[in-house]
Amino acid sequence: MRIIRYLHDKQLVLAALTDSGKVYNLPYQEFLELTSLAEKRKMTALKLVEDVIADSVPLEASIEELQLTVPIDAPEVWASGVTYFKSKEARNYEATDGKLDATTFYDKVYDAARPEIFFKSTSERTVGPNDPVYLRSDSKWQIPEPELGLVINNHGKVLGYLAGNDMSCRDIEGENPLYLPQAKVWRNSCSVGPAIRLAETVENPYDFEISCKIFRDDIIVFEGNARTDQLKRSFEELISYLLKDNQIFEGTILLTGTCVVPPNEFTLADGDEVEIEISTIGMLKNSVKSLVNQREKSY
Question: CATH homologous superfamily for 76-298?
């Protein structure tokens, strides 16, 4: 069971998406309203949804016909770095001008007790399915980072799973690690969706398949895939460090790192299309737009 949100007559509608593809409107405004009510009634969110839709009629429209939005307005999005071996290799390449055999602080982070966790986005900077992600104007080497996202409550309990795109400027981060916030955070630099897979419906969260395709002029210019069982760290470990001496808000999203990295010579271009798909969650599609061009259009 997945939870989606879509626009209808300029109003946001929360809905349940069954594994058979049927869509049922829910009598709640927000995902957190659903999970909060389930907790008060001492039942799972899945059971609450099943009770609600038991006597309901599904929409005639399919999910492909709906104008999907971000399934949750996450107050904050945090992200994890160097959680996969492939990510460590990519970070080393950036930091050493392509010296593949060089050892850097990324090797230390990969093996250290403490994981890398950084602030990624706010609800205002985060976009959803079919919204554009923007290219930072002062970077010449940018890529999408397909990641599994954890939707958590303020105690760190995982409420659900979604797909995320942690847009990244490889040249800015590689120039100096102190530039990480600028390499990761800017307008429309994070997308999440298309649905939240309820946590209680996931038997093994380390069994997700993650794939990414990048299209340019309708031609695939990059394609890659990975599995969450390739993670170096557990989700519990990442969450525990995020919560350490920190105030976390209901509905926070924690992105868990990427293992799908385009070739070192690749960079995104204005007009590209990015598709990130995670098994049993769905496909997150975003167009890529130049922030410079967006500014010119606004004048």
Answer: Fumarylacetoacetase-like, C-terminal domain (3.90.850.10)
